[in-house]
Specification:
160 residues; alpha+beta; five-stranded antiparallel sheet; three-stranded antiparallel sheet; 22% helix; globular
């Protein structure tokens, strides 16, 4: 069953970019822990830990070092469609434990482009307009845009 994905401008943020890297490498970067530290947070901040259990309900946990502050992000995968769609959220942690203060659900959509690249769409869904506005003010477009720029540069080094 495929659900239609409609964006709600009141609660969703999104952008689409074309990456000059094959889709299978973008997927690999997002789903293997060894790759995540190379792109998942804008430099000079760092990813210091990654745990991935790539299945619906499986963990997607990361730890960031932001200017010396440790930020732990616990989440789960809600949908995994190999090389097409990855949905994860911090609304729950592994074992379907509700988070006390969830922030968002991320949806990544990947498609081939005619030139062998990848159409990359990132969507951040929020519980309410206030949380969406907070995320936009935190720099969603610059931050997630930097992440995808870093992802493309890193993945180009993996081209085989």
């Amino acid at each position: 069953m495929t659900l239609k994905l409609e964006l709600d401008p009141a609660t969703d943020l999104s952008f689409t970019r074309t990456l000059a890297v094959p889709r299978h490498l973008i997927w690999e970067c997002w789903t293997l822990p060894k790759h995540i530290p190379h792109f998942f947070i804008p430099a000079p901040h760092k990813v210091t830990s990654v745990e991935i259990d790539l299945r619906v309900g499986g963990r997607f946990n990361t730890t960031f070092d932001v200017e010396g502050n440790v930020m732990e992000n616990l989440g789960v995968y809600l949908e995994v469609v190999p090389e097409e769609k990855l949905v994860f959220t911090d609304t729950y942690s592994e074992g379907w434990k509700p988070a006390p203060d969830p922030f968002m659900t991320a949806i990544l959509l990947l498609k081939d482009t005619p030139d062998g690249g990848t159409s990359y769409t990132a969507i951040a869904r929020h519980r309410n307009p206030e949380t969406r506005a907070t995320h936009e003010q935190m720099g969603f477009f610059d931050g997630w845009g930097t992440v995808v720029t870093q992802l493309e540069a890193y993945a180009k080094g993996l081209v085989r």
